[in-house]
Amino acid sequence: MTSYAGPKEVDFHFDVMCPWAYQTSLWMRDVRDQLDLKVNWKFFSLEEINLREGKKHPWEREWSYGWSMMRIGVILRRMDMSLLDDWYALAGRALHVDGNRPHNPDVAKHLLEQIGADPSIVEQSIDDESTHSEIKVEHDRVVETGGFGVPTLFFPDGQAFFGPVLLDPPKGDAALRLWNAVTAWLEFPHLYEMQRPKQPTDEQAIYETFKPYLEARDWVSINRGKVVGFDPKD
To answer: What is the 3-state secondary structure (H, E, C) of the chain?
Structure first.
């Protein structure tokens, strides 16, 4: 059994829209459950960070895909962090595994019922303008540290990491070994980046894993101003 003596708490910034953050969240929950780690779910908007010139900010629209799912999350978190945890787990699975559309208000209502929450929270989140500012504060926190995407982790000492970015999230002892590897970086504040080049087989694995998401999304994926295509044939 892998031992661990690192931080006991972490802030995990996510956007339900992000397939990478969803994969990492599965690993994060496994680690949390093994170590009794406190995970604070926080928000970040891919729609805002990748906003194209001339387009409305997500808070200027009555309904916006990822932003509106986070507004629902704000209402749930005000009640209990565990409700946001359940919402992210279920909405994430709906989009990234089942190929469903949790960003559709009617689907969102159904998912809320599944976690034992009132489906009228969808309307509550739309009517409550303060949900915008709550998301903005957490989004800006990532941007102000130089962040640009999710998953982004914040630790009690103030350090923040983008990642880990992975497929096939490890479980059990392997999950703890990865957590140890991630938190080991806290000792080296000037260690900024290590990246594995993706081979064609990796690109194919990513495409196959993300296929439900690709079929369910109603948006174009953009990363740092560029449209992202996941199909290795493109």
So the answer is: CCCCCCCCEEEEEECCCCHHHHHHHHHHHHHHHHHCCEEEEEECCHHHHCCCCCCCCHHHCCCCHHHHHHHHHHHHHHHCHHHHHHHHHHHHHHHHCCCCCCCCHHHHHHHHHHCCCCCCHHHHHHHCCHHHHHHHHHHHHHHHCCCCCCCEEECCCCCEEECCCCCCCCCHHHHHHHHHHHHHHHHCCCCCCCCCCCCHHHHHHHHHHHHHHHHHCCCCCEECCEECCCCCCC
